[in-house]
Amino acid sequence: MAKEAALATGKLANAPVSMLDGCTVLSWQGGPAPDQARLAAEAEAQRKADDLYAKSDAADHDAKQNTGRSAAELAKAAAKDAEAAQLAADSAQASVALAGKREERDKAFAAAGGASFGKNGLHELGAPPDAKTAEGIGVGSSLADLHKAYDARGLKLGEAGRFELPIAEKPGWRFEFTPAANGTVGGVAISDGVLKCR
């Protein structure tokens, strides 16, 4: 589903609550309102990570081109290697900061639900807090009930710490159940499983 078609239903708020990784995240009507400070912090973290990655990649490529033999050429090559190493370290730190912003976005999305759209349309749909699956699993369900309902259908713990269940009727898509610290389900979503929308 395209974002415009989803907005036409009137069930989603018009203004995004997150724009990380090219994903436009909209909350349900009556859900969390956009936080301009958070949006600005996300945009800056994204800009910084993208900029440093590009600079690091270019510096690494440039450093590999140095094949000098004289002392001056070797010194220049060593300086370029050091610059490339520093940019790689800075890029890694920026990536960690960006990952922190992603985690904040994902926690808010799991708690409140909403819809995330990329350039190809719907990327993820987070259930409202009172929604339940056909098997009665929703926010507040015990993890024991989650396992009882879905282990036989292929429920597994994914890399992001969420329980994942393939959706047979929609190849490539899956249910994602976010566990809460108290042993219950903290959020339910369906996702195409792609980290970035761009």
Chart the SSEs and their pairings.
Elements: H1 3-8, E1 24-26, H2 36-64, H3 71-112, E2 114-118, E3 121-126, H4 143-150, E4 156-157, E5 163-166, E6 174-179, E7 185-191
Antiparallel strand pairs: 1-2, 2-3, 3-7, 4-5, 5-6, 6-7
Helix pairs in contact: 2-3
Spatial extent as radius of gyration: 21 Å
Strand content: 15-25%
Which regions contain 5 or more consecutive residues with pLDDT less than 50?
A: none
Q: What is the N-to-C order of secondary-structure elements (H for helix, E for strand)?
A: HEHHEEHEEEE
Secondary structure category: alpha+beta
Order of strands across the main sheet? 1-2-3-7-6-5-4
Mean pLDDT: 89
Walk me through what this model shows.
Residues 51-74 are annotated as: Disordered. Residues 51-64 have a biased composition (Basic and acidic residues). The structure is a single chain. The protein is α+β, with helices and mostly antiparallel strands. The protein folds into two domains: 3-112; 127-191, no CATH class. The protein is 43% helix and 17% strand. The chain contains four helices and seven strands; from the N terminus they run αβααββαββββ. A seven-stranded antiparallel sheet has the order 1-2-3-7-6-5-4. The longest helix is centred in the middle third of the chain and has 42 residues, at 71-112. The radius of gyration is 21 Å and the shape is elongated. The model has no long low-confidence stretch (mean pLDDT 89).
